[in-house]
Structure formats: C-alpha cells, structure tokens
TrEMBL record:
Family: Belongs to the UDP-glycosyltransferase family.
TM spans (from-to): 482-501
Pfam family, one: UDPGT
InterPro entries reported for this sequence: UDP-glycosyltransferase (IPR050271), UDP_glucos_trans (IPR002213), UDP_glycos_trans_CS (IPR035595)
Protein name per Swiss-Prot or TrEMBL: Uncharacterized protein
Length: 505
C-alpha cells in the first residue's frame, strides 16, 4: 500500500477476556508498526499493563472503569456451572457469562464515540477483540474500517450444511461426517432449546443500548460486513467455505517467549517425563474438580507413567498443597508455558483447552488431556480430539482414574498415533503461524479499499471483500425467483404437453 505523508493511526481495542485476548491483536499491530503505522491501545482501567511488552504503542486510551476483582472472581466462579447447550441442560450460565463480558459496552461505546468525534485523534483503522461490540457501532456510525479478531470461527455465523447446529456451540460433534442421526438431530434441536435464553439476552442487550440512546441493532446475519481475522487454522478447526472477508490467520504466536527459569529449570532437567498442568488465569477450579486432578496425577506418578508434574496454579488452591504433596510435583504461581511445552521432557499437557493453550500445544507438538470449562474450550477440546492429539474429559463426569488413564494413553501411545498426529499438526501450525503477516496485509488492503472508495465522505462502492449476497434480498441471493420461474415453466410445459396429447389422441 502506498503510505500517505502522515502515519496511518491503528487503534487496538481489547476490554474483556484477559490478556490472552489482547496479545494476538498486539502481535498483528507489531507487524504493522514496522510498516510505518502509529499504534494506539484502548482498554479498561487497570488493564493498561497488557501493553507493557509492546513499546511501540504510542498512546493508551482508557475506555471506562475496570471490573472490580471481587466481581470478576464471582462471575468466573459462576461460569464453572457452564454446561454444553444440550437438550434439557440449563443454559443460563452461558448467557450470564456473555452478559458479564458485554456489560462494559456503555462506557466503551461512549469513550470510543468521543474519540471518533475528535478529528485529530480519530483512528484510521480499528483492530478489536470479538467481545467489543462498540467497535462495530463505530464502523456503522463513523464508517471507520475495522477488523474483528476471533479465537475460533465466529459463533453463530458462517453456517454450513455439513456443520450441525449452531456454529461454535456444537454438541459432541464438529461436523456431520461421522455423526449419528441422533447427534445431528440433537444439534439442530438445541437451536429451539436455547431460544428462551436467547430472547432474554437480546432483550437485555436492547435495553442496555437504548439507555445510551442507540436504537440500531447490531448486525446478526450469517456473514460479517467487515474484516474478520480468526486465530485458528484448518488442521484444528473444521474446514469450511468462507467469504472473502473472513481469514484464518492462526496460530498467532509471539516470535520470542520467556525461557525457563528456576525452579522450573532445575525440576524439568531432573525429570525425564513431565506432565504439565495449567488452567489459565481466570478459571477457578472447584475443590472436587481440583482433588480429582490431583489424585489422578498421583496415580500417574505411582504407576511411573511420568516422573514429574509441573502445575502452574494460583493462590486459590494453595490450601490444598500444604501437606501430602508428592516431592515430584512442582507447584508454581507462574510457569513460562511455551518454554515448558517446548522442552523434550514434557510428555503431556493437562489443560482447559483455551485458544492460546490449544495453539501453543499444537505448535510445540504436545498431546493434550483437556478438561474444558466454558466458552470455546468445549469445542477446542473436541477439535484436539478430532485432530488426533487430545483426549477430552467432561468436567462434570470424570474421576481420578479417568484422568490417569487418559494421561497414560497419550504418554505411552502404544499405537504411535498421538506422536504422528502431534508431529503432523506441529509442522502445519509452524507454517500457518506465518499467516499473521497475511492478517496485517489484509488490514492494509481493507484500509486502501476504504480510502479509495470514499470520496468527500461519500461511499462510492461497497467493501471489495464483501460478497454480493450480503447486500441482496434473500430471494435474489438464493435465486428463488429463478426457481419459481423454472417450476412454473415446467408446469406449463407439462400441461401443454398433456393438452396436445389429448388433442391428437
């Protein structure tokens, strides 16, 4: 792209979901900074430190107050009740979590509006996390070009006939290829099952937006009207046809990562078969679940399937670790996860299957025993299983022996399938990780298109990557009128043929 005399200003916006949601955006921004872009970062109060590792950020904008730690802990604790949206399951925790993560919309919308109204501060492009709906509002109100980052293919969008149910919320199966009739039917019936919660959620969102004077609804079609960058690749995610403005560019990985330090360094050098355990920063394991994992790991050590465990664990469960812990188990507040996974002594990863952990596991070729808790973790666990590199355990329905058996299966790997599939995905992931540069290319491409089709604040053409069907009535996009003409013509032909036959005979 031919740069103008002044730097293009890119605004990166991340508000909810924690630092792992912000890092992929900042990695793309880092590439664009090397191409001459000025990078600014916007987030909630108290989250400014997410930008500390990125010195190229020229300015940080505070979009509103951060969530109080006690409120955040309580909300994530409630998310532990999350269940897959099966028939007869209570889906309220799913929508409670969604409403909690979107509750900052009023302050974010107001702050971004002020920023957009300032001609000297207005960004030329906004790159945002998928949870920041206010950015889509800025796109609609101020015609600023945007790109939304998703950790998986957008939930509830991009349907395909061979993907049963609600995309991103599938139950048990990711595609219809090997699904039973009942599995396919159950996924379709879930659409009806969750309808009461969906109506309640949309009513809540509508009232929240109305209080801010916004009566316009957010787009809800099957395809996005803006650029979507997805932090995945088609050896883990289910391949499907995509519109031109949706691009899988993952796994988005940092070029460098922290090295092993003490006490992890000494421990991992002394133990030849390490099981690494980590459940992210927000997950608050219930005591029963924590104990099942602990007991399962002790069985693994006693059976000499592994000779060491490194568990990155916060202070919540320290009360359980005071007595009776095996000397071959190391508990740390923080572990340099990628360095642990990259070490040849690490044989398996027990994880919640968050997107960052999923990407890091496949990038470093480590099999995963997943205990998914909420959000896309349930589908990530299925993805790892379908890719042949993981065994999922249901958090509501596993015991210590189940965990020990799963770890034993991936470590001993009697058939060699886990090893071969880990090597296969590792190779693909390392090639696919280069696509973060393609993500930066697409942002430049969309910006060039935007600047070229807006003349004197008038939009002369639609977005070049948007497929035409998004701008057409459904009957025309699906050729229903042509089918109707064909049916009528066929009927007239049949009728005329019969009349002629009767006439002559």
């Amino acid at each position: 792209m031919e740069m103008s005399s002044t730097k293009n200003r890119l605004l990166v916006v991340a508000t909810a979901g924690g630092k792992p949601n912000a890092e992929p955006l900042l990695e793309i921004a880092k590439i664009l900074n090397t191409r001459g872009y000025s990078i600014e970062f916007a987030t909630l109060e108290g989250q400014e430190k997410w930008a500390d590792k990125y010195p190229f950020i020229s300015k940080v904008h505070i979009l509103g107050p951060g969530v109080a730690p006690a409120v955040q802990r309580a909300s994530y604790a409630r998310m532990m009740d999350w269940k897959a949206p099966r028939l007869f399951n209570d889906c309220q925790p799913l929508f409670d979590a969604k409403m909690f993560l979107e509750s900052s919309w009023p302050s974010v919308y107001s702050s971004l509006s002020v920023l957009m109204q300032d001609r000297d501060a207005r960004p030329d492009f906004i790159l945002a996390d998928y949870l920041v709906d206010a950015v889509i509002d800025m796109h609609a109100e101020y015609r600023v070009p945007i790109a939304m980052h998703w950790p998986q293919m957008p939930t509830g969008m991009l349907p395909a006939s061979y993907v049963p149910g609600i995309p991103g919320l599938q139950v048990d199966v990711l595609s219809s290829e090997n699904a039973t009739l009942w599995q396919r039917l159950q996924n379709e019936l879930v659409k009806i099952h969750i309808l009461p919660w969906v109506i309640k959620y949309y009513w809540w969102r509508r009232k929240m937006r109305a209080r801010a004077g916004v009566t316009r609804s957010l787009p809800s079609g099957p395809k996005p009207s803006h650029l979507v960058l997805v932090n995945t690749f088609f050896a883990v995610d289910t391949p499907k046809d995509l519109p031109s403005n949706v691009a899988p560019i993952g796994p988005i990985m940092q070029d460098e990562y922290p090295h092993l330090t003490e006490p992890c360094l000494s421990f991992i050098e002394k133990h030849k078969k390490i099981i690494y355990v980590a459940f992210g920063t927000h997950i608050l394991l219930q005591d029963k679940l924590f104990r099942q994992i602990m007991d399962g790991l002790l069985v693994v050590l006693q059976n000499r399937v592994a000779d060491g465990v490194i568990w990155s664990i916060g202070g919540t469960h320290r009360k359980h670790l005071a007595n009776g812990c095996d000397r071959n188990m190391l508990f740390v507040n923080f572990a340099p996860q990628r360095a642990v996974l990259a070490h040849p002594h690490t044989r398996a990863f027990i994880s919640h299957a968050g997107r960052a952990s999923t990407n890091e596991a496949v990038f470093h070729g480590v099999p995963v025993v997943s205990v998914a808790i909420y959000f896309d973790q349930l589908q990530n666990a299925m993805r790892l299983h379908d890719a042949g590199v993981g065994i999922p355990l249901d958090k509501h329905d596993f015991n210590a022996d189940d965990l020990a058996n799963a770890v034993t299966q991936v470590v001993k790997d009697s058939s060699g399938d886990f090893r071969h599939n880990c090597l296969r995905l590792k190779a693909i992931a390392r090639i696919a990780s280069r696509r973060k540069h393609s993500g930066a290319d697409l942002i430049e491409e969309v910006l060039a298109d935007h600047e070229g089709r807006h003349v004197d604040s008038v939009c002369k053409r639609p977005m070049h990557l948007q497929t035409a069907d998004v701008r057409m009535p459904v009957w025309k996009a699906k050729n229903w009128d042509l089918y109707a003409i064909a049916i009528v013509a066929s009927g007239l032909f049949a009728l005329s043929t019969r009349v002629l036959v009767n006439w002559f005979y």
